């Protein structure tokens, strides 16, 4: 680049050129670029901070490169305390995102520095600490007055972080039915048991989430302990191809309707569709239409061979789908257009 520039060749550069030099810690390259008129902007400082290139950050700032909250945010996100200190001590702004990113990365020293030096925080700090499973970060935030909400328990459940849930609940953090649903979705039976035994509310979304994830033992536990379910439990199992979950739900009285068949067709799950139809689940034109739309010719053929109705929507969806043979087969077999 230097040779081309000195020889007078046209060399395309932009603000991204300086940012790239900063990102990879090439201070000498950045100096040369700046001295030869290459533009820069706040992304140069942000990229230097993100990678912890303190000397690059210093050079850029001392030579007039602008910065904004992204510099502090990126330093916090990556755990580069010295870069954050330099930026803050030289007037770079920060926001609640700085604490949030520090917590999300589990960077307790960064969070402590930011908070002790006046950086604002909000519920997101606790939520993201919980999501990452960073108990010490969560403790520090809570014990120093950081607010929290039900998102803490929900995100801890989603990640399977039992210690986080225990601490949060024992210290008065609120939770709701989404907390149990998140545990079910993630397949965390022991966590769901704990939440339920501690009287965390649950609703039909728990069974739906368990069925969607194929977590049969969770579905059994929830149902056997009085959790409600509805037609979406079966539909979710069908969409995601979880036959055993569908069987259990149906055999234990969970309702189903046309959406079970149409979702099975949409997901391409022939065995699911066979089971549902052979056990009396209703279907309608949507089953054929979704099979065509998603390119599942084998399912479309089976559905038609077993009397499933179709209409113009099947032809429309088949025409827009791949492969083309689906549309051709539909037309050849009398699909209305």
Automatic annotation (TrEMBL):
Annotated Pfam families: Ank_4
Q: Which domain of life is it from?
A: Eukaryota
Q: Which InterPro entries match?
A: Ankyrin_rpt, Ankyrin_rpt-contain_sf, SecEffector_AnkRepeat
Kindly list the residue ranges recorded as spanning the membrane: none
Q: What is this protein called?
A: Ankyrin containing protein (ISS)
Biological source species:
Seminavis robusta
């Amino acid at each position: 680049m230097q040779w081309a520039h000195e020889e007078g060749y046209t060399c395309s550069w932009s603000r991204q050129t300086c940012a790239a030099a900063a990102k990879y810690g090439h201070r000498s390259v950045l100096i040369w670029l700046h001295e030869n008129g290459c533009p820069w902007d706040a992304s140069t400082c942000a990229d230097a901070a993100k990678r912890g290139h303190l000397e690059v950050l210093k050079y850029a700032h001392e030579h007039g490169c602008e910065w904004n909250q992204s510099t502090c945010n990126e330093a916090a996100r990556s755990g580069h305390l010295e870069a954050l200190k330099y930026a803050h001590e030289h007037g770079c702004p920060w926001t609640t995102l700085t604490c949030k990113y520090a917590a999300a990365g589990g960077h307790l020293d960064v969070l402590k520095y930011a908070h002790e030096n006046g950086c604002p925080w909000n519920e997101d700090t606790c939520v993201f600490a919980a999501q990452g499973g960073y108990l010490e970060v969560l403790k520090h935030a809570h014990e120093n007055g950081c607010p929290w909400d039900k998102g803490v328990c929900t995100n801890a459940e989603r990640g399977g972080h039992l210690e986080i849930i225990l601490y949060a609940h024992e210290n008065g953090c609120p939770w709701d039915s989404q907390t149990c649903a998140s545990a079910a979705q993630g397949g965390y039976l022991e966590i769901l048991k704990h939440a339920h035994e501690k009287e965390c509310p649950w609703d039909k979304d728990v069974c739906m989430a368990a069925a969607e994830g194929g977590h049969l033992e969770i579905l059994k536990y929830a149902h056997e302990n009085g959790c409600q379910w509805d037609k979406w439990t079966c539909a979710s199992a069908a969409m995601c191809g979880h036959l055993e979950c569908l069987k259990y739900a149906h055999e234990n009285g969970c309702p189903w309707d046309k959406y079970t068949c149409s979702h099975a067709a949409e997901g391409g799950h022939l065995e699911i569709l066979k089971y549902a139809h052979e056990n009396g689940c209703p279907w309608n034109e949507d089953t054929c239409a979704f099979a065509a739309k998603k390119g599942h010719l084998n399912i479309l053929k089976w559905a038609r061979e077993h009397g499933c109705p179709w209409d113009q929507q099947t032809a429309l969806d088949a025409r827009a789908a791949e492969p083309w043979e689906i549309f051709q087969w539909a037309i050849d077999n009398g699909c209305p257009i």
